[in-house]
Amino acid sequence: MSENRRAVVTGIGAVTPLGNTASETWEAMKAGKNGIAPITLFDTTGYKARLGAEVKGFDPTEYMEKIETLRTDRYAQFAAAAAEQAVEESGITGAVEPERFAVQFGAGIGGIGTFENEYAKLRDRGPRRVSALFIPMMIANMAAGLIAIRHDCRGSAMPSVTACASGSNAIGEALRMIRHGYADAVITGGAEAAITASAVAGFVNMQALSTSDDLNAASLPFDKRRNGFVIGEGAVALVLEEYGHAKARGARIYGEVCGYGSTCDAHHITAPHPEARGGARAMTDAMAEAGYTGEDLVYINAHGTGTPMNDVVETMAIKKALGEDAARRALVSSTKSMTGHMLGAAGAVEAMACLLALEEGIVPPTINLSEQDEACDLNCVAGTAQKAEITLALSNSLGFGGHNACLAFRKV
């Protein structure tokens, strides 16, 4: 097979803290809407962190039978819903051979809500009360498996489990599957539902979460006041399709995934490398594949978590990858200021933001950025969306374990 096959996006689905479709989410992003609110999914009494970016008004029975909702974790329900939307929009059903239809879907943690519920049964009522479906509901590959079953994808169906880089790695690996001839279409993206008592306790005790009770001063990427991320949840799915295949059937094309870099810092289980060596190389690899030139007007959807170390190191990575002058010309924003950090779904929602920013010529903002850190001295599109005819969009994802992923997108 040719290694020059191109991969384009022909469908997008989303269930996020900003809306339960891609269009709702994108309109809210452009408007600078804050999806963060007090956590309602469990009692936060005694917790230092009490804010989250929860999905609101989601009804899984719109996408599956009631009995199936009892057999799937919340993260997999989000994934199934987003995939259903993306597949329907793409019109791919019946247009590709099942053996050439694949799934690559990310989850950083998987069914931690199921784990908590079933462990409570074990602890309080004994081993016979643990569900026979405990394991298949909990495991992090089940979103990929469920999507493949629902859409008859008989090619490879695999998860990417690389912490906060999971969604981006899934999309990048889907690109490689199409580019190298292993599939003609791939359902890809990421999902997470980890706003649970144990997950929030773990994140806050490692001092990763913001402890602010002010909705507009909690997720603060690139701001001097930042003190951690706000946990989010949801899913975004993309249908990636070989360009010639999509064009032949007259599919609507959002844009092209034209570059991918995947590296490891090989440094520390949670901290990024202090010289940003892995993050910078992921960016340069993706830019090289995308045919970056100094003439490109670049938008970078930053990982931008709002943790003190991440934002400074990512700024360093951007400067190393683009060079100082080009880095200062680029437009940079963190949509996590609005969605919170959706963990395994973060790279997918940010890929969506890149594609729609390219299509509409509008860069979503970093909201609540009022005291920009001198160490994060790029154009971080503070406050409100900005019109710009960008020609190349990059999405960065940096995960625990030193995982780095960068995706590059262009118009077709």
Write the layout of secondary structure elements.
Layout: E1 7-15, H1 22-30, E2 37-38, E3 51-52, H2 66-69, H3 74-90, E4 101-106, H4 112-125, H5 134-138, H6 142-151, E5 157-160, H7 166-179, E6 185-192, H8 197-205, E7 234-242, H9 243-248, E8 255-264, H10 277-289, E9 298-301, H11 308-322, H12 324-329, E10 331-333, H13 336-339, H14 346-360, E11 362-363, E12 386-387, E13 392-399, E14 403-410
Parallel strand pairs: 4-5, 4-6, 9-10, 9-13
Antiparallel strand pairs: 1-7, 1-8, 2-3, 6-7, 8-14, 11-12, 13-14
> What percentage of residues falls in helices of 4 or more residues?
25-40%
Structural class designation:
alpha/beta
Percentage of residues in strands: 15-25%
Q: How far is it from the N-terminal to the C-terminal residue, by CA?
A: 22 Å
Major sheet summary line: 10 strands, mixed
Estimated radius of gyration: 20 Å
The total beta strand count reads 14
The level-1 CATH class of the largest domain: Alpha Beta
| CATH homologous superfamily label of the largest domain | Thiolase/Chalcone synthase
Q: Report the order of strands and helices.
A: EHEEHHEHHHEHEHEHEHEHHEHHEEEE
Strand ordering within the main sheet: 5-4-6-7-1-8-14-13-9-10
Low-pLDDT sequence parts: none
The CATH topology of the largest domain corresponds to Peroxisomal Thiolase, Chain A, domain 1
User: Into how many domains do the coordinates divide?
Assistant: 2
pLDDT averaged over residues: 97
| CATH architectural grouping of the largest domain | 3-Layer(aba) Sandwich
> What oligomeric state do these chains adopt?
single chain
